[in-house]
Amino acid sequence: MTVRVRIAPSPTGTLHIGTARTAIFNWLFANRHKGKFILRIEDTDEQRSKPEFVEDIKSGLTWLGLNWDEGPFFQTQRLNYYHKTIQKLLDQGLAYRCYCTLEELENMKELQKSNNQAPRYDNRHRYLTKTQQESFKAEGRKSVIRLIIDDEQEIRWNDLIRGHMTWKGSDLGGDMVIARARENSEVPFGQPLYNLAVVIDDVDMNISHVIRGEDHIANTAKQILLYEALDETIPYFAHTPLILNQEGRKLSKRDGVTSINDFREMGFLPEALVNYMSLLGWTLSDSTQEIFTLHEITENFDLERVNKAGAKFDWSKLDWINSQYLHKISAQELVDLLIPYWEKNNYLIDIDFDRQWLERIAILIQPSLVRLNDVIKESSFFFGENINYDDEAMLHMKQESVKDILELALTKIEENSILNEDDIKKIIKEIVKTFKVKKGLVMRSLRAGFSGKLHGPDLIESWRILNTKGWDKSRLKDLLNIL
Ligand code: GLU
């Protein structure tokens, strides 16, 4: 069998982490079985669908490295197919027009509620006569299309993640709406609903496996009835666990970031995010290995190893995985990734001229980066002639000998044009000897003087980086004026 899977997002919002994780599982499954991964945009909800969300979904998938083999296909361009199928179902007597008004449906619900019954459509228009239909039409009522659901029927499938699944027809809420009432007479039917469009598309696109979130399980039961009504082959189904927040509830906007673009802006690398997301609900047989590329996972991916239980989203694990990737990339790559953050913060840099200088900063701070946007906190003190001193650093300056230490350092800087590592080590030694102070005090004073903080990356390399711009001198001069 040729494996053909799809991701079918609705462009009613930006690419959500849950959709991206479903896309990863589909991509892995397709690639594992040398099949095809298809992108379909489910945009039949014309009021809520927006072209900018389509772009966001496409660029998010591309950024994550989830290239699709076919598509994007748009449901709004396939309305003819849905209309034809609706007509066929009507002609075969498997679907019918229901003329119930909203008010009637509301009353039905109220009555069921007061009788302690679950809300459902009571199928009252299933067998309307021609005359009844004509009189409803004459009243100006509009009609939706409903598919007949046999309450007695048992719907079964063997879910590739969850095993044997059984649903009762009676649990599906009565005959289901497959198309809304039409808005104008130019179209034969109103908006086709998700369950109908998805089945027609999956049939037409020869989808062999439907891999999607477990929130679609009830839809699967309804869709199987549609496959049967259309006399089409039912694909395999696999329902993936949901991504949960720390409280065990479905991860939502309220938990902060959920859109892939936000993760991107926060400084996660696509490889790291994909690595982390693939572990949300799936484990390798050797679960000690946690760092791998999509291609490495492909070799080992199978649906049997996808968990049934929901997967808790764990920021610290994502951070850890991201840091592993960040610490490994080359200085060149890192600089390319960091430049946009420096630019956004208006650090005046001439990217071409300062490239090598920036690379030195990148190498120096690389081990402290967890997310790319940490770059500002870690490297801000490298940029500009002057800096601000934090309270801790100012308090340190008040100590005895600190002014002397900095004065001598400034003299030494002025004596040498460019300082190399040995020069700096010598200067530090000389200061220790001259003032008979501890080396630690000298180092802390210099660090505070150059960076305005008592903590930071390697002092000698930091000093050298500032020295090439002459900012070690300008900073000590300014500082000594106020001490
Ligand atoms: N448009 C649906 C969604 O975004 C697709 C579900 C499916 O894969 O069938 O949830």
Automatic annotation (TrEMBL):
Keyword Cytoplasm: yes
Pfam families to which the protein is assigned, alphabetical: Anticodon_2, tRNA-synt_1c
EC code(s) of this entry: 6.1.1.17
Motif interval(s): 'KMSKS' region: 250-254
Catalytic EC class: ligase
Family matches, as SUPFAM superfamilies: An anticodon-binding domain of class I aminoacyl-tRNA synthetases (SSF48163), Nucleotidylyl transferase (SSF52374)
Binding site residues for ATP: K253
Subcellular location: Cytoplasm
Ranges for domain Aminoacyl-tRNA synthetase class I anticodon-binding: 333-467
Domain Glutamyl/glutaminyl-tRNA synthetase class Ib catalytic, residue spans: 3-320
Reaction(s) catalysed by this chain's protein: tRNA(Glu) + L-glutamate + ATP = L-glutamyl-tRNA(Glu) + AMP + diphosphate
Source organism, top-level taxon: Bacteria
CDD domains: GluRS_core (cd00808)
Alphabetical list of PANTHER family matching this protein: GLUTAMATE--TRNA LIGASE, GLUTAMATE--TRNA LIGASE, MITOCHONDRIAL-RELATED
Family annotation (NCBIfam families): gltX_bact
HAMAP family in the cross-refs: Glu_tRNA_synth_type1 (MF_00022)
Similarity section: Belongs to the class-I aminoacyl-tRNA synthetase family. Glutamate--tRNA ligase type 1 subfamily.
Function of the molecule: Catalyzes the attachment of glutamate to tRNA(Glu) in a two-step reaction: glutamate is first activated by ATP to form Glu-AMP and then transferred to the acceptor end of tRNA(Glu).
Listed name of the protein: Glutamate--tRNA ligase
